[in-house]
Target: Putative Amidohydrolase
Amino acid sequence: MADNTNRVVDIHTHMYPPVYVKMLEGRTTIPLVRKFVQDPEPRLILLASELEALDNALKDPTAKPPGRPLTSHYASVDQKLHFMKTNRIDVSVVSLANPWLDFLESSEAGGIAKEINEGFSTMCEEHCGKLYFFATLPLTAPLDVLKQSIQDVKNLKHCRGVILGTSGLGKGLDDPNLLPIFQELADAELIIFLHPHYGLPNEVYGPRAEEYGHVLPLALGFPMETTIAVARMYMAGVFDQVRGLRMLLAHSGGTLPFLAGRIESCILHDGDLVRNGKVPKDRRTVWDVLKEQIYLDAVIYSQVGLRAAAETSGADRLMYGTDHPFFPPIESDIQGEWHSAIFNADAVDSTFGKESDVARAVMGGNAIRVLRLDEE
Ligand code: URA
Ligand code: ZN
Model:
């Protein structure tokens, strides 16, 4: 067996398989892939914050097209492997990128989920030991189809969990109808990789939003979305009702490590909740849940963020990620090193000490243990 202590594992790395790209090419509203007269390369347009720019670019051939170039890094497994090699990553746990299958008609979601999950499974089998994956659930499908898909992915050898957005069955993750789904995932020992997509309402970015590119939705909208989704789950008691539930939160838990204390204080000082017996003395605090049921990725690009994440959930629950193929280098060759990947690895080294046991654990050891990446 390979020596695990120095292996680098990327647990936050996405793909859009060719079948998914094809689906996006056929769409006229977001998410979609399309070419513009302004730019012959196909572009990937995903976010609600891009809607206005999309509208403008379609009306005005001099307007800047929205989105990002759909480079070969999104769909090609060879590119994934090349990226891993050039950025010193030994193992990747690949997931479909946002917005997954959230937008599909109920009747088509089950079949497409099966196709995508089996495709990922075959890809991992062909690169055994190097690639694993988080599966995609057909959340808009009828409940029996959704449940069957959990049973299906549970039996796929390289599947280690599922990636999930915050919309759930349409009403968010505190929806009681999701409890049996969470229970099934827990019973199947499938971790949930919780990832944002919807951000915050466009209005919060103000009338000058277009001047600021993707910065505010990605840097702030995404993490707040994750924060709110998990806080809602906590307030609804989901973590107590499904004690086996394990979640890996994207972007180091949004702002949860920073805001957990404030959430606690607001709970303790909410007169109605306290008087109605909803804040029992023996309840598990937000901190308890973050330490017992939550894992955090290390995709936060700073020592301050990494320290907060490690103090909140434990350095033994923190796992390196890159967010490839998003955040490609702008000025240098995209076939070389990616600043976004190296910067995150450097942040781990500078926070925990280069080649220290903690840094090695964050860079790979934790993922190998938590996701059982040494099991065939
Ligand atoms: N932008 C996205 O839409 N998704 C990511 O995962 C990262 C950036
Ligand atoms: Zn991501």
Notes: The first helix runs from residue 18 to 25. The domain at 9-16+76-371 is CATH 3.20.20.140 (TIM Barrel).
